[in-house]
TrEMBL record:
PANTHER family (UniProt xref): ABC TRANSPORTER G FAMILY MEMBER 1, ABC TRANSPORTER G FAMILY MEMBER 28
Membrane topology term: Multi-pass membrane protein
Similarity comment: family membership: Belongs to the ABC transporter superfamily. ABCG family. Eye pigment precursor importer (TC 3.A.1.204) subfamily.
Descriptive protein name: ABC transporter domain-containing protein
Domain ABC transporter: 100-341
Subcellular location, record wording: Membrane
Any GO CC annotation of this UniProt entry: membrane
Regions crossing the membrane: 456-477, 489-510, 531-554, 566-587, 594-616, 715-736
UniProt source species: Brassica carinata
């Protein structure tokens, strides 16, 4: 026989429930499930939630699975986080001062630290929403980051436990999700496509596509965005869904795999009252499906407050209140500042906290009162510590509890692995193999790009226009000495243009940076998959650009080499685009701002052109700068096209009197030049006529110092540079996107 006892809170409002089972073995599973359902329904009425508590969040799970979910309790004790404050450098600091011998004075020179979290403790359980409140700078987001393991190891003191066991970083990544404050979404994808791609990333390959689509459709209905399912997300230049819908889509992306822990940083920020209520109502349904939901929120309305189960008020990193919303009136009444009737409880509390922060003593008195109040409640047994209630899975370790929860339908990405073992956690770090990730990433990127054809159109137009200008300026260059100089100028400008054109790709990753960091922070896909997908998606456009530039300039300028020369010309242009695109992509992984990135790219490419060998011959470059010559990306394509143009041994570029061209003697009459040529001929003891070839293509290559590498070696080195910078880009992502505070 089962007896359900509702424990009253401080003001008589029902806050939590305990179930005493005198003979648990005699109660059937269905009876136990019905009892739990009745308790939850009472709680639903107490908070005014019209949504059925046990409405299935995932239609694939039956009601019995939800009644028998594995209980989880998250507790955190004495969380402390300090950061160093850099002292401003003043003129006084530049003046050398005598060292002090007083050790006490010497200690004051140590760098100052600021406490962002100071011994924060609390606990919550599945089925509940715990909200962290406070003014700007109080430490709300810092506490959420601490619980979500987004603070570097060693910087955070204290413990975070789930069911009494310390949470490991790898386990937390698998069972949790973090929703950032900003809505980071691809603007040209529809709501349905956005959630479907999230399902492709987070749900296992073994799950049929029809099941994934069903999961997405169910999620869309639960999020209340069915009418916007076919609408694009939108941005400043494209009209899309509303702000409240964007926020719910952001939440949907991270709960597609039904995580056990869900962290949200100010999910209602920037939303109107109705939209904020709808968002929190969705979070309530998620919690009731068996998840622990922890949010930071600025100033909840009365309706939103009715959906919250536990509150933590922070002030400058200290806890000033921790408890249920219903206990707020009694707390402040005992503190000496009773909440007036018909006034929003949280607004009053936040106003009082701000007022105390501006006073001489600050909130120290309120912090100390909260400590005494918490101790008094424990002594009076008014707030017993949370423990997992009776369940079909007693005495389980954390890994066993997670595995059992997976077997009941939670954590969809681990369903395949956990199906064979209900007692061991075997959830993989990533839901899919690398080739599935690459395919999905490529598909998403190409779909988003295809709906913004103007971006590629601008790049193509710039390349074609540049080629057209070069073709008309260097139209049909002859084989005279002046023609040789013009060819050298054309090649130098053309090859550098390939790299400058690639600078337009700089904002691509910068725009996706935070989406990438959000998705990889919780193992949606591997960083290597993103790097490979990025290269695969970028390559086809480079082929079009290469063919367009080669077709515009090769015949118009009158370049040599025939069909094979044209083929190599296309290949070296493609290799230049590839190396330039990889170089710019690598820089985008280092530089966080677009304008700063453009400045660096333009400066470095100018240096590459300077040391390419066009402005100054390799033999004339000082020894202390010769290393930059070999690092120049422009050097190798430039030397390759020179060899492609001047490799014909039968072609002559200087004959007879043309030797006087590009010299002061070039202005002399033709007859005078012939007599000078005859005089030179007799002086040298050879016969030099007006038709004698004096300079071949090989001579020009020697004059330019292009003698060390063949054109095919130059091509391979250029391609190799492209792969080299892609590898560097990968390490930038690996080391620079940890997304953790230090």
């Amino acid at each position: 026989m089962a007896r359900i006892v509702a424990a009253d809170d401080d003001d008589g409002t029902q806050q939590f429930y305990s179930m005493e089972l005198n003979s648990i073995s005699s109660v059937s599973d269905s009876t136990l499930g019905q009892l739990l359902k009745n308790v939850s329904d009472v709680r639903k009425l107490a908070i005014g939630d019209e949504t059925p508590v046990h409405e299935s969040f995932n239609q694939d799970h039956d009601d019995d699975n939800l009644m028998r979910t594995v209980p989880f309790v998250l507790s955190f004790d004495n969380l402390t986080y300090n950061v160093s404050i850099r002292q401003k450098l003043t003129f006084r600091d530049l003046i050398p001062r005598r060292k002090t011998e007083d050790p006490e004075i010497a200690q004051t020179v140590a760098p100052n630290t600021k406490t962002l979290l100071n011994n924060i403790s609390g606990e919550t359980r599945d089925g509940e929403i715990m909200a962290v409140l406070g003014a700007s700078g109080s430490g709300k987001s810092t506490l959420i980051d601490a619980l979500a393991n987004r603070i570097a190891k060693g910087s955070l003191k204290g413990t975070v436990k789930l069911n009494g066991e310390t949470l490991q970083s790898r386990t937390l990544k698998v069972i949790s999700a973090y929703v950032m404050q900003d809505d980071l979404l691809f603007p040209m994808l529809t709501v349905e496509e956005t959630l479907m791609f999230a399902a492709e990333f987070r749900l296992p390959r073994s799950l049929p596509k029809s099941k994934k689509k069903l999961r997405v459709q169910t999620l869309i209905e639960q999020l209340g965005i069915k009418n916007a399912a076919k609408t694009i997300i939108g941005d400043e230049g494209h009209r899309g869904i509303s702000g409240g819908e964007r926020r719910r889509v952001s939440i949907g992306i991270d709960i597609i795999h039904d995580p056990i822990l869900l962290f949200l940083d100010e999910p209602t920020s920037g939303l109107d009252s109705t939209s904020a209520y709808m968002v929190v109502k969705v979070l309530k349904r998620i919690a009731q499906s068996g998840s622990i939901v922890i949010i930071s929120i600025h100033q909840p309305s009365h309706r939103v407050l009715g959906l919250l189960n536990r509150l933590i008020f922070l002030s400058r990193g200290n806890t000033v209140f921790s408890g249920s919303p219903a206990s707020l009136p009694r707390f402040f009444a005992e503190f000496g500042s009773p909440i007036p009737e018909n006034e929003n409880r949280t607004e009053f509390a936040l106003d009082l906290i701000r007022e105390l922060e501006g006073s001489a003593g600050g909130t120290r008195g309120l912090v100390e009162f909260n400590k005494k109040w918490q101790e008094m409640k424990k002594e009076n047994n008014r707030q017993p510590p949370l423990t997992p209630p009776s369940s079909p899975y007693p005495n389980l370790t954390l890994k066993e509890a997670i595995a059992a929860s997976i077997s009941r339908g939670k954590l969809v990405s681990g369903g395949e692995s956990a199906a064979s073992s209900a007692t061991t956690l075997t959830v993989p770090a990533f839901a899919n193999p690398i080739w599935i990730e690459i395919s999905t990433l490529s598909k998403r990127s190409m779909l988003n790009s295809r709906r913004q054809p103007e971006l590629f159109g601008i790049r193509l137009a710039s390349v074609v226009i540049t080629g057209f200008i070069l073709a008309t300026v260097f139209w049909r260059i002859d084989n005279s000495p002046k023609g040789v100089q013009e060819r050298l100028g054309f090649f130098a400008f053309a090859m550098s243009t390939m790299f400058y054109t690639c600078a337009e790709a700089l904002p691509v990753f910068l725009q996706e940076r935070y989406i990438f960091m959000r998705e990889t922070a919780y193992n949606a896909y591997r960083r290597s998959s993103y790097v490979l997908s990025h290269a695969i998606v970028a390559f086809p456009s480079l082929v079009f650009l290469s063919v367009a530039f080669a077709a515009t300039t090769f015949w118009a300028v009158g370049l040599d080499g025939g069909p094979m020369g044209l083929l190599f010309y296309c290949l070296i242009i493609l290799a230049s685009f590839w190396a330039g695109s990889s170089f710019v992509t690598f820089l985008s992984g280092i530089v966080p701002h677009v304008m700063l990135g453009y400045t660096i790219v333009v400066a470095i490419l100018a240096y590459f052109l300077l040391f390419s060998g066009f402005f100054i011959n390799r033999n004339r470059i000082p020894d202390y700068w010769i290393w930059f010559h070999y690092m120049s990306l422009v050097k190798y394509p430039y030397e390759a096209v020179l060899q492609n143009e001047f490799s014909d041994p039968t072609k002559c570029f200087v004959r007879g009197v043309q030797i006087f061209d590009n010299t002061p003697l070039g202005v002399l009459p033709e007859g005078m030049k012939l007599r000078l040529l005859d005089t030179v001929s007799r002086s040298l003891g050879t016969t030099i006529s007006s038709s004698t070839c004096l300079t071949t293509g090989a001579d020009i290559l020697t004059q330019q110092g292009v003698t060390q590498l063949s054109k095919w070696n130059c091509l391979l080195i250029t391609v190799g540079f492209g792969f080299f910078f892609r590898v560097l880009f990968y390490f930038c992502l690996l080391l620079g996107s940890k997304n953790k505070r230090r």
